Amino acid sequence: MQKEAAIREPLILGHKTYHDITEDVCRPIEDKAPKTWYVLFGIALVIGLYGVGCILYLLGTGVGVWGLNKTIGWAWDITNFVWWVGIGHAGTLISAVLLLFRQKWRMAINRSAEAMTIFAVFMAGLFPLIHMGRLWLAYWVLPLPNQFGSLWVNFNSPLLWDVFAISTYLSVSLVFWYIGLIPDFATIRDRAKKPLAKKMYSIMAFGWSGRAKHWNRFELVSLVLAGLATPLVFSVHSIVSFDFATSVIPGWHTTIFPPYFVAGAVFSGFAMVQTLLLIMRKAMGLEAYIHTKHVEYMNIVIMVTGSIVGTAYITELFISWYSGVEYEAYAFINRATGPYWWAYWSMMTCNVISPQLMWIRKLRRSLLFTFFISIVVNIGMWFERYVIIVTSLHRDYLPSSWSMHYPSHIDIGVYVGTIGLFFVFFLLFARFFPVLALNEVKTILKGSGQSYKESPDYHNDHH
Amino acid sequence: MELNRKYWKGLEELKQTPEFIKHKEQEFPHLESVENFLSDEKLNESSTGRRDFLKFLGFSVAAATLAACEAPVTKAVPYVVKPENVTPGMPTWYASTYYDGNSYASILVKTREGRPIFIKGNKDYGVTKGGVNPQIIASVLGLYDSERLSSAVTKDGKSIAWFKADDAIKASLKSAKKVVFLSNSIISPSLSKAVDSLGASLNASAAGKFEHVTYDAVSYSAMREANLENFGEALIPNYDFSKAKTIVSVGADFLNAWLLSTEFAVQYGKTRNPDGEGMSKHFQFESVMSMTGSNADYRGMIKPSEQASVLAYLINKLGGSVAVPGKLSTPVQAVADKAVAELKKTKGSSVVVCGSNNKDLQLLTNYLNNLLGNYGTTIDINNPINLYKGNDAAANKLFADILSGKGPDVLIMHGVNPVYTHVNGEEIGKALGKIKLTVSTNAYADETASKCIYICPDHHGLETWMDYQPKSNHYAIAQPTIRPLGETASILESVLVWAGLAERGGKDSTVGYDYIKSTFEGMTGGDFAYATHNSAVDMSIVSKGLTFTVVKPKGNFPKSSDLEVVFYQKSAIGTGLHANNPWLQEMPDPMTKATWDNYITMNPVEMTKAGYATTYDQENGLSLAKVSVNGKEVTLPVYPLPGQALGTVGIAIGYGRGGNGEKIGKGAYQTKEYGGHVLNENGHPASIGANVFPMASVVGGNVLLSNEGKIEKVAGTYAIAATQIHHTVMGRNSVVRETTLDIYNAKSKESYNKPHLLQKLDENGHHVEVPVSEFDLWDAHPVEKIGHRWGMTVDLSSCIGCGACLIACQSENNVPVVGKDEVRRGREMHWLRIDRYFASDEEATIGTRKNKETFGYLDAEIAAENPKVVHMPMMCHHCNHAPCETVCPVAATTHSNEGLNQMAYNRCIGTRYCANNCPYKVRRFNWFNYPSYKKFTEINPAQDDLGRMVLNPDVTVRTRGVMEKCSFCVQRIQATKLNAKKEARPVIDGEFATACSDACPTNAIIVGDWNDFNSSVHKSSSDNRAYQALEEVGVKPNVWFKVKVRNEENDLLAKLQVEKKKEAHGGEHHGKETKAHH
Most buried one in A133, A451, B6, B857, CB count within 10 A? Predict the structure, then answer.
């Protein structure tokens, strides 16, 4: 029996039964979609298709349609890449790390967080591909046997490590997510009345029968995958940070980057989870499962990681002065006072100051405030990557090559388009997939459900 | 596949019939007709199996798909009979001579498969000693301009047979009352003779019927007039800057545009070597910061009207006496006083030049030179320069006659474009219609030629025989390097035909050749073949015994006004003759780094006061202003050029060409963002920049390129395409190092070229300071002592910033032209660029901070009012620990075992990571498909069938999406090595040169094998001035820079550049690079 402090708030509110949970989760899938879903899906699709159009124009014409130049070889492309990878970080942290730490509250959010991760990594993966001058040769980054003699990839290049890191992360996340979905698909399959839906869900359920043996294997695989995925949480963004940290560019060449990037990724990932879940709980009537307590927990994660990020920023500043390196010092002075001061101070405000407000209990329990801060953090984290990439490149060693970056409308179109595409995927997920791990949530109903706590059994147990 | 079964040719083979055995050995046995064979019913039985069919189908579809992915194969057809001297794949070099009315040089032309593709200076023969300017190198592209006229044409642009045009011209010549031959300065003895004989034939019928008028776009008439008064002969003497210890230039841009600048740059380079026999001291007084002024040791900012004051001040201080018109400002006087002191010390070995076309100023200059005893030492009156024979009085009289309708009946124009270059150009253009017969020999239907009744286009300089006499003692020959591309005719032949002395010979005409040969033999008596091989012969001269008569000026100096407008020549565009050359349009100006435009230069100090924008970038343009002079107005952006004299603005001539529908080349017009020409209000392609020739003033009968005017701010901004938007080096000593000659001579390397030291623990645990080069993250690259290791040194003292290297690199390496819009976006493709840094007030000199504690970054961004300048050529450093190499995911950029950092274009997937990680920012990315994308159709020679012929076949034309950069001209390295290998010998030092080092007029760039310890590059890289830019980054470059030495006094710098004090207990280590600290 699970022991729990008496003052702990229940994780499931209201007098939910096992059947209620099934009903609550399956209803959106089985019912007709509401009008708002179609409206949202329509908007997301239009934006997504505009992004696809921009990408096709880019691929047809050349990378020159972006606002890059001889000095600034990466700007919005890699900013967006790192931003999306960062967002894609929370899912695995929630599903793997919190699983290992037996944090039961994760069960309400892990499914959608994982879905978010996967879609975010899709979006992230798009950018390194389309930013290439010759996309059609992208497969050359894979160590494939080839007809060019003994020509091999360059194992020294952090970009190559990225290829491995991102693809590993994506595949593990995808498998983890799917394994969790299997029992839930089986539930939907069993309830499905339409033949096509029944057929589809039964294929996706992989013949799950709910036998004890299945559950045993399910638990085991989850645990193994959690063990596998946990190091990935730290490796992916560390490796992404190596793109910068191993370079010689002042502002990039910083040993603090790996931990700082990981913390930042968790920070932005949780913010995005907040943004999505606060809408979803309302839209899909899941207030009983995702409530203030969950939000508060996540806000605490945001506060902690935000503080780590803030410390990292200040450490960077200090070291740039303390190192006595001319270029390093100038890079940071320039960030704060140069032409891109507004980006730097946006970043500082959004990422350092705003999470500190979460120390106030009232604020971190306010859903409206949380939603606002989650957007602010996402903006701040986009600026962080922009500041790192563009302000470091635009004024590096030789003042003769100093330059400015202005985005073209294709830059903006591609970025906004990926947000549209992301929501296309997410809305499809919300429509056809169980957004809550319904079978897992049932396991905590007894221990942490409101109705159980109010039942006589609960009080008897404690006497 | 089931194909391993045995097949027979037929039953006959299976059965081995006697008939088969009989025919077995024959390849084509006449057995059965095809029709019979195909009609055989049995064939159907031997059909291919279904599975085999699918296999073949699959294979052929796959093969077709793969084949479709490949670029289409362009067939190359070999010669049936190999021409003499043409070996496919091997270049042939021809010695020749370049002259276009302004620039002159002895050149070497590289041809491949009969196509000239590269021009460089001839270092062995000719007066210019290898000196060339960007315009000369780029002229090879002009050969392949598809808008160059390819036949004689009439006014309406229709081709006309040569004989018809000739008959009409000859008839008019006969019946005319007055014939004028208007030309630029003809320095060809043969052409002069031919024109004279044309004149003689006409004058024979009626005396005074023929007149030859010489008119130069930029006139030096005043110099000749002054010398006429001083020496009795209207000549321009020969200058020798290499003998000058003190050089004083008053507004003469003698390294860039003034007189025989190609030769002067070479001479000047020799005197700027701090390790040589003595470094000259160079004083420059000027209005616009010129390339020459940027190299001066001392520079005074004066208005054009103050030139007289400066010269008079110098004269009076040096013992002469003239009336002083006006006073000098304090800073200018300080410079002038220093100049006086130097001139006193170096009497007889100094030179004073004045760039003004004002007779009184030239009289003052001559007076000063005579006072200093420079005639006979640095200035040779006996060997005059023949360039710029233009006579303002004669030319202006002619134009006045034309305008008033009293002009000649026949006007033949050669090499002139007065409609564009003359003050009254527009009116002259209209008045040309009044003349019965106008003929132009220009190669394009330009502003003047398009208004002529006949255009009889001259050959391009690379297509024709010609001879030149740039100086009295020198005879040079230009030989054709290609058969004329179009039906053009040499001017020499045309003149002879019109004089009735020759018949047209068509493309393979020998008229010009025969005529020149006879001229040559008459003048020198030498061997023509031998002279042609060298392109030049020297002749003896006799002293004319001219003596100097002091003539005091009458005070007809340029007028003073609140705002004086100065018209100057840019290094790339000059007088606008090559305005259609996209290489030159895209060449960053040495001072402003702006391309594809002219603009108003103004001192940023004045601009701030007047509220003009002083910064610009790709999106933020410069403020517009309207300059009105003579009632003529131009609206142009105002460029913040430090060093511009207060109260003056500068505007470059040579722009604003061809805006009235003339066809002067596709590259001569503004292009739109997505390709095509911008059209002006008249529906014609809009010209680049504005023409300011009409704003010139006439003082004392001479056309002066300055005038009084007004400037007025106009609403709006204008995007400027500059390759550099930041102007100072921010006190970064490891980028630019500079010292003075005194410090360099007196102190050790440590004071002015301090190695970057880092601390480490030695084996005893003591802290020691060692040079950064001893720290290494990586294993040493295995090129250090084995085989070749190609290296380069760039001497910042010698580099004058002319840009010849840049154009040579572009020409050699097929560097794409990207146009104004792309340059503005910071995407020019130049493999070699010249960084130009101005000093700020925070710096004692460029790269050295006045005070490390109070150094302010924001102030350091602002250039001083009259700053020092350094030009720093920047190209790939071929780092032995190249940061670009480690980051490429596909190993597309790797290190060769000869120390080169090489790009495998085919392997590049275009992540641009290498470019980001390059500390020198020299990598260039192909943002678009320059050889085919529509945006570049008008400007990129590679998109034009004819223009493509200029491409160097040894260098790949890069496709979209790949990175490119300087390769150290690896194709030349390979060719050199192959040559050496064929001759079974090692590569000799100096045998290999990159395009840039080949082109450099001052030998600032030295390349060679660094592993050869006796090579000049190795020696140069190990002397005291050598340093590596950004050494502390640890990338171990194979390029060394050499500290710039300025011949100036700089007390502040002397205090800062000190040697370390001897330490009490570290005495025995003193002088070594490592020092112990306990």
Answer: A133
The pair of structure tokens assigned to B627 is 């300059």
Are A247 and B916 within 8 A, CB to CB? Answer: yes
Question: How many contacts does A have with B, using Cβ atoms within 8 A?
Answer: 177
Do A399 and B730 lie within an 8 Å CB cutoff?
yes
- Whole-number mean pLDDT of chain A? 87
pLDDT in tens, B209-235: 889 999 999 999 999 999 999 999 999
CA–CA gap between residue B772 and residue A196 (Å, rounded): 72
Tell if the CB–CB gap between A393 and B916 is shorter than 8 Å: yes
The whole domain housing A307 covers 18-144+151-453
A chain contacts of residue B859, beta-carbon cutoff 8 Å: none
When CB atoms are compared, the residue of A62, A64, A156 closest to B886 is A156
Q: Are A88 and A121 in contact (CB under 8 A)?
A: yes
Tens of pLDDT, residues A126-156: 999 999 999 999 988 988 887 767 788 999 9
The CATH code of the domain that includes A357 is 1.20.1630.10
Does A11 reside within a domain?
no
Nearest-angstrom CA–CA distance, B521 and A220: 103
Q: Tokens 């019913």 sit at which residue?
A: B41
Residue A164 with chain B: CB contacts under 8 Å: none
Q: What is the pLDDT of residue A457?
A: 61
Which of B917, B928, B929, B930 is most worth mutating to test chain A (most A CB atoms within 10 A of its CB)?
Answer: B917
| Residue A26 resides in a domain | yes
CA nearest B531: which of B474, B464, B491? B474
Least confident of A427-436, A437-446, B196-205: A437-446
Q: Could you report the per-residue pLDDT of A355-400, keeping only the tens digit for each?
A: 899 899 898 888 899 999 999 999 999 999 999 999 999 999 999 9
Q: What is the largest CA-CA distance in chain B?
A: 121
Best of A71, A247, A248 to disrupt the B interface (most B CBs within 10 Å) is A248
pLDDT at B1066: 43
pLDDT at B1069: 43
pLDDT at B37: 62
> A 373-402 residues with CB below 8 A of B?
393, 395-402
B725 with A404: Cβ contact below 8 A: yes
Using the predicted structure, report yes or no on whether residue A207 has a pLDDT greater than 80: yes
φ and ψ at residue A370, rounded to 5 degrees: -60, -45
A153 and B891 within 8 Å at the Cβ level: the answer is yes
Q: Are A404 and B619 in contact (CB under 8 A)?
A: yes
Distance CA B8, CA A208 (A): 62
Low-confidence spans in chain B with pLDDT less than 70: 1-4, 27-48, 66-76, 78, 782-784, 1061-1078
Q: Does A307 touch chain B (CB under 8 A)?
A: no
Domain count, chain A: 1
- A243 to B886: CB separation less than 8 angstroms, yes or no: no
Q: Is residue A262 part of a domain?
A: yes
Q: Which residue has the tokens 């018109």?
A: B325
**Residue of B72, B55, B67, B123 lying closest to B95 (CA atoms):** B123
Quote the pLDDT of residue A459.
Answer: 57
* Domain membership flag for residue A8: no
CA dist A29 and A24 (Å) reads: 10
* Cα distance between residue B627 and residue B217, in whole Å: 22
What is the arithmetic mean of pLDDT over A106-111?
A: 84
pTM: 0.88
How confident is residue A173, by pLDDT bands cut at 50, 70 and 90?
confident
pLDDT tens track for B804-817? 999 999 999 999 99
Is some CB atom of chain B closer than 8 A to the CB atom of A159?
yes
Nearest to A133 among B732, B835, B960 (CB): B960
From chain B, pick out residues whose CB is under 8 angstroms from the CB of A246.
886-887
- Amino acid identity at B1000: C
